[in-house]
Design goal:
By secondary structure, the chain is α/β, with parallel strands linked by helices. It contains 8 helices and 17 strands.
Length: about 350
């Protein structure tokens, strides 16, 4: 099955790629995509309270973006070096990806620079791992969090100013409900919410639940394989707590809709649902109610996937040829989502992480 059956390219003028969010996040445009009516409408994020129904539940991803982008100098050559922190091992070593001119070797020393471009921490490359990753050891006894605060920068995607942060990104590239550090990219659908908007939504009878999925680098990688089945999906760590499960199941039993804010929330809930489905088929469960889950997921949602945990979804406009776009098409329908993207370009919506959003009902 050719991947072109389910993903598409589209011509996007560079001027439509948002380089910063709007001053007031709720002024972002919101495209309503109604699957049942096969209809597209144009609204604003501030209209969400009127677009949802009393008894619905918004599910957010409370992951917190860490300052994972690194800059440094190769001690042996003086050449510039760029890296991205991915995770820390139980032994305190770092898993990173990096690029520089020439070939890196195990044992090399990198002088990491702080935001004033001053040498701050020495990082030794230990071993090259699969997938272009390196295992590295910092020369400091400070915690990983403290070191990243010292030398890390906001890990912006390349289409925002070439990945170069400005001070305002520390606030702008973080949801207001971020709680659990670990993401190297923001769950961007959540960037639109403000405290007054949440209060307005709640006053309309809509409830909230938080789950966690630490967004990884693979989120943005385009599909390179000829078929979707051959694409190697990245893993991301997440958690769905017992408390969250009770809230979600109660909403579903009462007839309310589960509205996922972002593709990351979709992956958490559908991963948990898949485990329940598997337990049912093995005789280990008695209902399709969600159950708590934690761990890593490599769930790749693509046609003909049948959704079991969500009823609606809010998401930004995604980069062409990515698994995110495949997920959105699978939920919204190939032809309807294609029309939605074409109309978004025609109506000059703002695209990608700092851009506008759509609500698929």
């Amino acid at each position: 099955m050719n991947k072109d059956d389910f993903t598409f390219d589209y011509d996007l003028p560079k001027r439509l790629i948002a380089q910063q969010p709007l001053e007031n996040r709720v002024d972002a445009r919101l495209m309503l995509v109604d699957r049942q009516a096969d209809r597209i409408e144009h609204h604003y994020v501030r209209d969400i309270p009127q677009l949802l129904a009393s008894g619905d539940r918004l599910v957010f991803n409370n992951t917190k973006v860490i300052p994972a982008s690194l800059q440094g100098v190769r001690t042996s050559t003086g050449g510039n070096w760029q890296g991205l922190f991915l995770e820390v091992t139980p032994q305190g070593q770092w898993k990173i990806i990096c690029k520089t001119r020439g070939h890196l070797k195990a044992g090399e020393q990198i002088s990491l620079l702080d935001r004033h471009m001053r040498p701050a921490v020495q990082l030794q490359l230990i071993e090259r791992l699969d997938g272009g990753q390196w295992l590295a050891q910092p020369d400091s006894q400070a915690t990983c969090s403290d070191l990243l605060t010292q030398v890390g920068r906001v890990p912006l995607p390349h289409y925002i100013r070439g990945g170069r942060m400005v001070d305002s990104d520390e606030v702008n590239y973080q949801t207001i409900y971020a709680r659990e550090p670990g993401a190297v990219a923001a769950p961007t659908a959540g960037l639109h919410f403000t405290k007054p908007l949440l209060e307005s939504i709640e006053s309309h009878g809509v409830a909230f639940t938080a789950v966690t999925l630490h967004v990884g680098l693979g989120t943005f990688r385009p599909i390179q394989s000829e078929s979707l089945e051959d694409h190697q999906m990245h893993e991301e760590r997440g958690e769905l707590t017992e408390a969250a499960v009770k809230e979600i199941n109660a909403t579903r039993e009462a007839g309310g809709r589960i509205v996922a804010v972002g593709t990351t929330v979709v992956r958490v809930l559908e991963t948990a649902f898949a485990q329940v489905d598997e337990a049912l088929s093995d005789g280990g469960a008695t209902s399709r109610n969600l159950a708590a889950w934690s761990g890593k997921t490599d769930l790749f949602i693509r046609p003909p996937y049948q959704f079991g945990a969500i009823d609606a979804m809010m998401t930004n406009f995604h980069y062409p040829g990515t698994t995110l776009l495949v997920l959105v098409q699978t939920f919204g329908g190939r032809d309807l989502i294609r029309r939605a993207y074409e109309e978004a370009v025609r109506e000059e919506y703002r695209f990608f992480s700092y851009g506008d959003a759509m609500l698929i009902l």
